[in-house]
Write a structure and sequence with these properties.
- This protein is an alpha/beta fold.
- It has two domains: about 200 residues, Rossmann fold (3-Layer(aba) Sandwich), CATH 3.40.50.170; about 110 residues, Methionyl-tRNA Fmet Formyltransferase, Chain A, domain 2.
- It contains eight helices and 17 strands.
- A seven-stranded mixed sheet has the order 5-2-1-6-7-9-10, sandwiched between helices.
- α1 runs parallel beside α2.
- The termini are far apart.
Length: about 300
Amino acid sequence: MAFAGTPEIARTVLEEIIANDFNVELVLTQPDRPAGRGMKLTPSPVKELAIGNNIEVIQPLSFKKNPEAITRLKELQPDIMVVVAYGLILPQEVLDIPRLGCINIHVSLLPKWRGAAPIQRAVLAGDKESGVTIMQMDVGLDTGDMLLVEKVTLDTGETSASLHDKLAVLGAKMVVKYLNSPESYLPVKQDLDGVSYAHKLTKEEAAIDWQEDASIIERKIRGYNPFPGAFSGLDGKLHKFWQATLVTEHTKLPAGAIIRATTSELLIACGNGSVLRIDEIQEAGSKRKQISQYLQGKTDLVGKIFSNEVLK
């Protein structure tokens, strides 16, 4: 078997595969990238796990620039290749190598949310359920036939971070189930009527528009947690918002205005007179703080207005 993946979610799946004694002979992952304050070259979570288990690792920049990666796969002739958030598109030549093809673990209920950011788009859209689809890969973007689908319900207060962890565990269990009996799962075509795309997140889209209703802003705070973090400006400083709660209060103050700042409560006016309580916040140059900690020593906040103009 070969495995292709890069981030933490892929590591979780690979860990489960190894724990269930499947023979992983080769791992493909993205090249080491600069990370952290020192921008030191850092291996992917998948590479770290593979090396720790004495599995051969190759890191092509692309299959065009590094044809030796294809050569190595052809030498190996794996029965199957499991792909999870790898980060490179597999050409047909690669898809054709494994006897049972390449299967992909995609963290959405396909055909909904094909693409790069299915978890975040599900939270941002206010979806009530999500899940994992194991599919047979083809050259399209998440267009292959579905082999196995399982659903989860989004909890109240579900963030992209918490849904990520939930789906990583589910996907890992599902792939083991599939690998134990691949012939038991018949491919099912995706329903083209239900297709939607989960476009890659940008930092710019996480800027909070306080004119929107509090319910939409609260959802965005959850959807952009942990990346890129919903943000706004106050006193010329960037603030990121990590957790918030809808309240029943209404106000006539302008959107973005702080309407209450006690020792343990920060309320902000939003669109349509709606109000949002901020529970966790991060000021530029500081760490994430519970609101009571953030408010310590801060005075005269009431009436000040959060805005993105100060950040331009």
